[in-house]
């Protein structure tokens, strides 16, 4: 026995069509048919192409940016620092501290360039003329005028840079070459200029 009240077979598109008719109103999908002409279609197609092209152009622009390196403008690592006669004995010259990160110190016999970077964690110490020492504000490391560490957590003395007198008589500091006391490099003639 078969049930004679079976519902008629429905097509898979029947349910979406009914939903669309409910949303679009009484006219349903038949109201849309015939309203889109070729003249109405091509402006929409053109707009779609312009949008897609603009999107790809923006993506290409962002992608091309990665092909060019970030340029960091830093001061030169070699610079002229005036004439040796400009430096007082027993004084620390701070003219080049902020721009080049260098102190130039003159004692009785030599002129040398000290790094302004603390050997503990890389802070910048301050020169305290009244106390005749460099004092790091971060953790209290102290350095004598010659760069030797004597207090605080700094594990080693300040580094020295290559220094020499150029042909025109001016002092030249080259930060590409560093000299460390613990390696015995402060005795290197390139780490100081003899003033005798």
Question: Can you put this structure into words, describing what you see?
Answer:
There is one protein chain. The strands form two sheets. Strands 1, 2, 3, 4, 9, 10 and 11 form a seven-stranded antiparallel β-sheet that branches. The chain has a four-stranded antiparallel β-sheet with strand order 5-6-7-8, with no helix packed on it. It has 196 residues and is α+β, with helices and mostly antiparallel strands. Helix content is 22%, strand content 23%. The protein folds into two domains: 14-65, no CATH class; 78-194, Rieske [2Fe-2S] iron-sulphur domain (Rieske Iron-sulfur Protein, 3-layer Sandwich), CATH 2.102.10.
Task: Give a topology summary.
Elements lengths: L13 H11 L13 H28 L12 E3 L10 E3 L3 H4 L1 E5 L3 E6 L10 E3 L4 E3 L6 E3 L4 E3 L8 E6 L5 E9 L13 E2 L2
CATH topology of the largest domain: Rieske Iron-sulfur Protein
- Beta-strand share of residues: 15-25%
Number of helices: 3
Report the mean per-residue pLDDT as an integer: 80
Low-confidence stretches: none
What labels would you give this structure?
single chain; alpha+beta; Rieske Iron-sulfur Protein; 2 domains; 3 helices; 22% helix; elongated
């Amino acid at each position: 026995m078969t049930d004679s009240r079976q519902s008629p077979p429905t097509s898979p598109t029947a349910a979406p069509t009914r939903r669309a008719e409910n949303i679009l109103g009484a006219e349903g999908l038949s109201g849309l048919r015939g309203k889109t002409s070729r003249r109405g279609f091509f402006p929409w197609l053109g707009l779609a192409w312009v949008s897609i092209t603009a999107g790809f152009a923006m993506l290409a622009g962002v992608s091309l940016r990665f092909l060019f390196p970030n340029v960091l403008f830093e001061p030169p690592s070699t610079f002229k620092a005036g004439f040796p006669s400009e430096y007082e004995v027993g004084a620390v010259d701070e003219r080049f501290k902020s721009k080049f990160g260098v102190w130039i110190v003159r004692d009785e016999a030599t002129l040398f360039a000290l790094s302004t970077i603390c050997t503990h964690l890389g802070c910048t110490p301050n020169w305290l003329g009244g106390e005749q020492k460099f004092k790091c504000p971060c953790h209290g490391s102290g350095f004598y005028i010659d760069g030797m560490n004597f207090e605080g957590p700094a594990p080693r003395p300040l580094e020295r840079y290559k220094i020499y007198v150029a042909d025109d008589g001016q002092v030249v500091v080259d930060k590409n070459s560093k000299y460390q006391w613990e390696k015995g490099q402060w005795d290197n003639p390139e780490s100081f200029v003899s003033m005798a």
